[in-house]
Structure formats: C-alpha cells, structure tokens
Design goal:
three-stranded antiparallel β-sheet; three-stranded mixed β-sheet; alpha+beta
Length: 287
C-alpha cells in the first residue's frame, strides 16, 4: 500500500535506485534489485521525489518541525550538503535541523545529478544484474555494459550510453583502432540473416554480429561497402575522372598528329604545359 513503512524489507544488494519510500517513519531514498519481495509488489509505496513522498504521506511522517527551528544557533560554514525530507538542499545537517526544522535528511544534494554524454564509466559499478544497459566508454573504448540500472548513488548515467558501437564511436570520437582483437569471439553464435554492414575496415559483413564477433571491427554503417569508382585516372586524358580510384583503361587522348608537333596536350598551342606533360611521362615504357 502507499506510505507503507519499508524498514524491515530487503530489496537486494543492487545499486539501482528504486525511489523514495518510508523507512522508520521518514521519507528516504531506497536502492535494490526490484520492487517485488517474496512475491509482494511494493512499488505503490515508492515515490519519485522527497516532495512527492512527503506530500502523499503527510499523515505518516511530519517532515518539518517548527519547534526545533532556532536561528540563533551558529552553524558551521562547511558545505557538506544534505537533502531534507522537504526536498530542499541544506549546506549541512546543522542548517537542515536548526534553520530548516526538517526531521530527516539524506547525504548529498537533492535531485539526481546527470552526467554528460561520453562520460567514461570504467570505474562505475552498475550492479550484478545481467540486464544490457547499452554501449558506453569504458576506459576509453566503446563497450557493451550490463547492470541493474543507469542510476548509481543518485547519479544518472543514462546520457553516457548509446544503442550501437557505431553511434558511441561517432558521438565520442574515440581514438581507437578500427579492429579490436579483443572483440573477436569465434565461438559466438551469429544469426544467418543478410543485413549487410560495412565495417570501418572497408569489409562487408553479413550483419552486425558478424562484424563485431568475427571481424572485431569497432564501428560500421548499414549496407554493403561501396565499390571503388572505376574510370580514367590519367590527369592528362581528355576524359579524366577526378573521383575515380581504379583505372579501367577508358582514357582518351588528343591525336598526336595535329599539325603542331610540340602541341602534346592538344590545345592547339605549344606552352609550358606541353613540356610538363612530356616530363611527367619521362621513363615510361610504351607497349
């Protein structure tokens, strides 16, 4: 039921924040592996914030006791923040008790701290759960991460996670090699489905499972890799194609006998460019 006291219940050793519930008469943040214990669903007893808990359970807990407010107390100036049951952050416990009159609080500022995208989560424990959380930077590399949830110790790490290795590498511009031998797992069972991806190494794989586990590539894009553009790669040819990377033998040249022996490039005049054309072919073996 809502506002049930949860002090005697064990929700597990996971770090996932379940919400705010009543513990020994006070609204408190509670973490665990889930809201169900011994077949009983306790989720109705949880709230999203201290304020919501205190508002709904006002009869069960008195958050602010006006009689304990004493503004004459000289509290230390040290900033050791606590979050009062009223949802207000106080500089320290002395401020909370004597200036705010709150009857309970938790360590740290109120609300959830959200990390920036591409934050490295290598030193963070997300719990022993096997639930896939996504792909995030782990010690500098985009890696699959599992755990009990994206929130640890009141910090929301969800912005640091991505759906694919490709999107992680793209967003975080990670300076890692295209092929990571540590990712190769020949024992992995990949599905025989033709959903081709083009690896960062220019190789087309049947699907992303093949790319990751059999190729060890760290990023890819959907679809087959583009074939090299074939065409005329000879700069002095009449039909030179700047975008071509594979010569297909289609180059066309101006006729040699044009009435002007020195006009090598066929522009009806003898200029420095004709000399350069000759020099560029110096030493070539004609067949």
């Amino acid at each position: 039921m809502p506002c049930d006291d949860l002090a005697e219940l064990d929700f597990g050793l996971c770090d996932m924040v379940l919400g705010v519930g009543i513990v020994n008469g006070s609204c408190t943040y509670i973490s665990g592996c889930g809201w169900e214990v011994n077949g009983i669903d306790y989720s109705p007893a949880f709230y999203n914030s201290m304020t919501e808990c205190n508002t709904n359970c006002g009869n069960a807990v008195e958050c602010v006791d006006a009689s304990q407010i004493d503004l004459s107390i000289a509290c230390p100036l040290a900033f050791i923040p606590v979050c009062g049951c009223d949802g207000i952050t106080y500089d320290n416990e002395c401020y909370a008790q004597n200036y705010g009159g709150v009857t309970s609080w938790t360590e740290g500022v109120c609300g959830t701290v959200v990390v920036e995208p591409c934050s490295d989560v290598g030193d963070i424990s997300f719990g022993e759960c096997a639930m896939p959380l996504g792909i995030a930077l782990v010690n500098g590399s985009c890696t699959y991460v599992s755990g009990c949830g994206w929130e640890v110790n009141g910090i929301d790490y969800s912005p640091a996670f991505y759906l694919t290795v490709e999107s992680c590498n793209s967003a975080c511009d990670t300076p890692i090699d295209c092929v990571d031998p540590n990712l190769i797992d020949p024992n992995a069972t990949c599905y025989d489905l033709w959903e081709p991806v083009c690896g960062c190494n220019g190789v087309t794989y049947s699907n992303d499972c093949y790319a990751l586990n059999y190729g060890g590539v760290t990023s890819w894009i959907p679809g087959v890799c583009d074939s090299p553009l074939a065409g005329c790669t000879y700069m002095q040819a009449l039909n030179y194609q700047p975008g071509a990377s594979l010569d297909d033998g289609s180059c066309l040249f101006a006729p040699c006998n044009n009435g002007c022996d020195g006009d090598v490039d066929g522009d009806s005049s003898v200029t420095v460019n004709d000399i350069l054309v000759v020099l560029s072919n110096f030493g070539a073996i004609c067949q």
